[in-house]
From TrEMBL:
PROSITE patterns: CNMP_BINDING_3
Gene3D superfamilies: Jelly Rolls (2.60.120.10)
CDD domains, A to Z: CAP_ED
Domain of life: Bacteria
One Pfam family in the UniProt entry: cNMP_binding
Organism field: Streptomyces lavendulae subsp. lavendulae
Protein name, per record: Cyclic nucleotide-binding domain protein
Transmembrane residue ranges: none
Molecular-function GO terms, alphabetical: DNA-binding transcription factor activity
Gene Ontology CC annotations of this record: cytosol
């Protein structure tokens, strides 16, 4: 079973829609170890990584550490909860290295999406494709961890 490659914005959005989205970007930097967001908190922004690595995590009840579920690098989307009510983070994220990113205000982008259905559809499809790939990758990792092993001896 092959693993899909990460969905980068340039592969999905037209130059016009990319330009429109990027005109609302703000360049930001995160130091190694910085928290981008935490599960359960309001989701107001999202990012496209320019350089560095961001790890998505799931907090583990009763543990002091979280479980890393995905590492994201240049060109990848960080955060999708800004797009879906109730706009609350479903995961947590931490900069594993120094990170440079483009930051977007989720409410502003949602308003742009509502005002221009073609732009809204394109951004929605981009985020949807990102979610589909990440769901597939998570499924593959779970199968690797928990699927019965064939040919095992007792």
């Amino acid at each position: 079973m092959s693993t899909p490659s990460p969905i980068r914005i340039a592969a999905v959005l037209s130059a016009e829609h990319r330009g429109r989205l990027m005109s609302h970007a703000r360049e930001v930097n995160f130091a190694e170890g910085a928290r981008l967001f935490d599960e359960g908190r309001p989701a107001r922004s999202f990012w496209i990584v320019r350089s560095g690595t961001v790890t998505l995590e799931i907090p583990l009840p009763g543990h002091h550490r979280s479980a890393a579920v995905e590492s994201l690098g240049p060109g990848e989307l960080v955060g999708w909860s800004w797009l879906f009510p109730p706009y609350v983070w479903q995961l947590s994220a931490e900069a594993m290295t120094p990170v440079r990113a483009y930051e977007f205000d989720g409410e502003t982008v949602r308003l742009l999406m509502d005002a221009d259905p073609a732009f809204g559809s394109a951004v929605g499809h981009w985020v949807g494709r990102v979610l589909a790939v990440r769901l597939h990758q998570t499924r593959t990792r779970l199968l690797d961890l928990y699927a019965p092993r064939t040919g095992a001896t007792r």
